[in-house]
Amino acid sequence: EPANNGSSITGYYIDIGEKELIFVSPELTEFTIDEVLPNTAYKIRIRALNTIGQGPYSSIIKCHTKSLPPDAPQLECISATCNSLKLKWNTINHTIPTTPNNSEPTVSTRVITYVIEMEGKDGTFNCIYTGNTSSHKINKLQENTSYCFRICAKNDTGAGPWSDIYTFMTTKAPPNALKG
């Protein structure tokens, strides 16, 4: 608590730069600021007030909010054989934190992890791939059979939503060699 110069502190003003000042009662020692933007840098400062007036602002506290989890990528089958499917998906780009006055975010190289699940015979989805590449080959499949997949992407904030279910089919096997 700052020096009150003979008059009890009646509250605090929190300034996050772009909104109206937030008034906080003097009993609070911490406060959660709601309605902030994801992946955005903020400069926060605080000042005390009493019946005499407002004190000076504190030093600026720089912080930034986390980004939202990424959207689900689009999944496609780029190669099918009688016993394998090769899946490919679009990569997800992140943006670096921006200040409230900076309207042009730039692309960053944060690591995105992709998770692919395949539907089993019992109707449940099981993880078949977790990694940061943009393609994966599934082997040991049955010929001329449809398989259902879904994909999601994860970042340092968490996992995004699952995609719609994609269905891809293996091909028929070529005929066996003639015996002669």
Summarize the structure.
By secondary structure, this protein is mostly beta strands.
Helices and strands in order, then pairings?
Elements: E1 9-15, E2 22-24, E3 41-50, E4 61-64, E5 75-80, E6 85-89, E7 94-95, E8 107-108, E9 113-119, E10 125-131, E11 135-138, E12 146-154, E13 166-169
Antiparallel strand pairs: 1-2, 1-3, 3-4, 5-6, 6-11, 7-8, 9-10, 9-12, 12-13
Domain Fibronectin type-III: 1-68, 69-174
InterPro entries: E3_ligase_FN3/SPRY, FN3_dom, FN3_sf, Ig-like_fold, PAPs_N
Organism: Adineta steineri
Question: Could you explain the architecture of this structure?
Answer:
With 180 residues, the protein is mainly beta. The chain has no helices and 13 strands. The strands form four sheets. It has a four-stranded antiparallel β-sheet, with no helix packed on it. Strands 10-9-12-13 form a four-stranded antiparallel β-sheet, with no helix packed on it. 0% of the residues lie in helices and 39% in strands. The termini are far apart. It has two domains: 9-64, Immunoglobulins (Immunoglobulin-like), CATH 2.60.40.10; 75-169, Immunoglobulins (Immunoglobulin-like), CATH 2.60.40. One of its GO terms (molecular function) is acid phosphatase activity. Residues 1-68, 69-174 form the Fibronectin type-III domain. InterPro entries: E3_ligase_FN3/SPRY (IPR050617), FN3_dom (IPR003961), FN3_sf (IPR036116), Ig-like_fold (IPR013783), PAPs_N (IPR015914).
Mean pLDDT: 88
- Looking at CATH, the homologous superfamily of the largest domain is Immunoglobulins
SSE pattern, N- to C-terminal: EEEEEEEEEEEEE
Q: Which radius of gyration do the C-alpha atoms yield?
A: 27 Å
Largest sheet: 4 strands, antiparallel
Structural class: mainly beta
SS element count, helices: 0
Binned, the helix content reads under 10%
**CATH fold label of the largest domain:** Immunoglobulin-like
How far apart lie the N and C ends? 96 Å
GO molecular function: acid phosphatase activity; metal ion binding
InterPro entries: E3_ligase_FN3/SPRY, FN3_dom, FN3_sf, Ig-like_fold, PAPs_N
Organism: Adineta steineri
Domain Fibronectin type-III: 1-68, 69-174
